[in-house]
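Schema walk-through. Below, the input block comes first and the output block second. Nothing else is stored per chain. Lengths vary across the set, and this one has 388 residues.
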Amino acid sequence: MAIRFLPATVLALSLAIILPARAFLPGELVRATRGEMLQFQGVNVVPSSKGQEFTVLQHDAARGVVFVPFIKADGTMIAVTVPPDALEAAPRDGWLDLLSGVEAFRAGQGEVAKQYIARAAQDEKYKALAAALAPRLQAALASRSATALQTLRDAAAQLETVGYLSLALAIDEGTDRLGGATAPPTKVNRDELKKKVAISTRAVARTRQAVAMRCLNNADQEIRIGLEAEPARPELKAFQVKVQKDLEEANQKCADADRMRKLPKGAPHALTALEMGLKICVDLPALLALKKDMAGAFEEKTAPPVTAAFLTAAGGGNPTTLAEGHMLYTNRCTECHDLELLDSRTVASWQKAVSGMAKRAGVNADQQQRIIDYIAAAQKVVEKSPGE
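--- output ---
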């Protein structure tokens, strides 16, 4: 008898019905599988980008949302929501497993700690550290003897010395829980350690958020603050390498734009370089200063206002409709990102992009069409504008 296979779309739908929805646990690191607007109490706050990582605060299955932290410009943290189907578990590495393991130990979850640390030992980079910690933690959990607990105090002090303050704090506090009043005295300055770990942990969260929003100048500052508090924090060191590389590229684009704008008919090329730089980093002071300096030329190539000259160059059109499209484009679309050069896409590509972002921006079908009508007309204007 011939075997018949279901089409992929039907199979995916069938599995979605059969399999239970993924539940995300508090403290779990997740990442966005698509761009999605983060909301606070049902109101749009800021868009997230595909690949952006979050730490789960709570998964409210009944309401169909996952709460994740968002740090506002004034430093306060709020719990914003993301649809669970827009998230997936983030890839783990040895450091995350190691950190989760010692945090589980602190919480008294011995078996969980053992599993995480065993997994960390499979990462070549953290194999030696995991192998050194595992027997000490297991011995303390098994016997709670003074010798075993003293070994953990020594381990915490050693970890602090080499810069792994997060591990040191978790192990030292876990030793308190195991030994109680009979635990050997700590060898670390607990209050100071807590303060530094809080700073580095906050820096990780703020850096992750800044990188996702392409605010690399801000990310660089947060990384420096975090590493000053916890010098060996792996997440921050990994971010530092990437952010420094991207900042160098953004600075080079800025230098290219500044050089090209001084050349005869170099303005269009300068604007392209400026746009490319802003796509890498939106808060680089040099790029922002150059954008301000070239504001008139930038507006002409990204969102020219609807004037009599505009209508002539566009070959006509309804002034009211085009003006509304311009207003929507310059106000609603910029809630999520900077404006792009109008000639960077075809009209068909613009239509696809606007349609894809409409839900996040709260733009209905009629408004989408007005934006596209404006962009199509504006492209004609840009094509006819002088190259200076």
